[in-house]
Amino acid sequence: MRIDIITVLPELLRSPFEASILKRAIGKGLVEVHFHDLRDYTDHSYKQVDDYQFGGGAGMVLMIEPIDRCISSLKSERLYDEVIYMTPDGETLNQKTANGLSLLKNIIILCGHYKGVDQRVRDSMITKEISIGDYVLSGGELGAAVLCDTIIRLIPGVLNDETSALTDTFQDNLLAPPVYTRPSEYKGMKVPDVLLSGNFPEIERWREEEALKRTENLRPDLLQ
Ligand code: ADE
Questions:
Q1: Given 3.40.50.12780, 3.40.50.450, 3.40.1280.10, 3.40.30.10, which CATH number is that of 2-152?
Q2: Which of 37, 123, 170, 178 would be a feasible disulfide site paired with 95, CB 3.0-4.6 Å?
Q3: Dist. CA 214 → ligand 1 center (Å)
Q4: How many CA atoms lie within 13 A of 103 on its CB side?
């Protein structure tokens, strides 16, 4: 998979891709992530990429021209499955969306900033708009990092244990069951006996029940 991220703040985005699972996925060649600084696509003095909004009002708006140039240049190199815009008024990211996106070959992610982008960008170039939650970030970069993390860990071969993404919280619309590790007793707190029993069908049953109980208690909306 190839992900191209368009941003005015590439430095805000780099570090999540330079550590841990994302770094390993890139190192193994399972995903390529490229950053494109919008300022490299403008002829304006001082590399200006934003301007005041027509009609007045506070806040700057990212201009269409540098975005068009950047997206057109990427599209001239290869076909893209989606051109995603990160915005608080997009469709809220969930596991189902991440699963679907992880199957794609090439995607572009455009990070908004300030008041957002000129509406004509959204009307003519964007195929999907994604929010990471009902709150406003200073820009789309942190949202793009979250989106990339959820997608990349689903690509086969990225996680060491191939099955572990399948047992994640949300994969069956259920929260994950509790997990324990050594020691089996700590300050009087014991690990449930069933997990030490070696009876794997019994353990599986226990995990399913606990996942259901936890979902009923904490996120009953997921069961509706
Ligand atoms: N940009 C600003 N706020 C955002 C959010 N909640 N999700 C995605 N991108 C954003």
A1: 3.40.1280.10
A2: 170
A3: 29
A4: 5
